[in-house]
Amino acid sequence: MLKGKTALVTGSTSGIGLAMARALAAQGANIVVNGFGEADAIRAVEQELQGRGVRTLYHGADMSKPAEIEQMVRAAESAFGCVDILVNNAGIQHVAPIDKFPVDRWDAIIAINLSSAFHTIRLALPKMKAANWGRIINVASVHGLVASVEKSAYIAAKHGLVGLTKTVALETAPTGVTCNAICPGWVLTPLVQKQVDARAARDGIGEEDAKKSLLGEKQPSMQFVTTEQLAGLAVFLCSPAADQVRGVAWNMDGGWAAQ
Known about the structure:
This protein is α/β, with parallel strands linked by helices. The chain has 8 helices and 7 strands.
C-alpha cells in the first residue's frame, strides 16, 4: 500500500516507534529511523527493516534540539526526496508533584514531547502539500485527553499535541495531507515498565501484582495495549480509507477515557 513512500518515525529504535516502523515497512514504505541506542542495536533494526524490501536511513537527532531536527528532515529529503509519512513518537516522562517538579525536566518534556512535533511538521509539510499527499501521525496519549496526578509536564505536552494535531488538520483540510493523533493507554514499554517496577518496590509486591494494580486504577480492560495494535492503527491512518479522518485524537486505551 505504501510502496514508494517514505516514513520518518521519531523514537523508532524501540517500543511503539519501532512497532510502527515495522508495520509501515511491511506496507512498502522506506523508513527514516531515529532514536538513541547502541550502534549494533540500531544496525540490527535497520537490517530487520531492510529485510522487508525497503530502504532505511538512521539519523540520531536529539529531538530537544531544533537544529538537529532540521538536519534530520533535510537528510531524509536528500535520501528519499521527501517525507511522505511523519510519525511524531519520541517522548520522555518524569513523575513528581508540581511544586517539586524539576524545572529542567519540565523544559525537556515540553521540548521532546511537544515542540519537536511542531518542528518536524513545519519542516516536512511544504513538500507534503506540494505533492498533495501526506500523513502526519502524532503519538499523544490518553493523557492528552484526561489528567493524572504528578505528571504535569507530560499531560501539558500531550494535551498540547492533541491541540496541535487539530490545528494542523484544519490548515491542511483542503489538501491531500491528513493529521491525526493516536492516544494510547497503558502500553508495556520500557517507560511503563519503570513505573511497574517502582510500584512493586513501593508496595512490596511482585511484578504481576504491580501490573494488575497499575491497570486496575485506570484501564478497565485490565490488559495492556500492544505496540502492534497501535501500529495497525497507524497503518490504517495511512490508507485511502482514512482520507477523511482528520484532526482525530483516537484513543486506544482499554476503556480508560470512557469512564
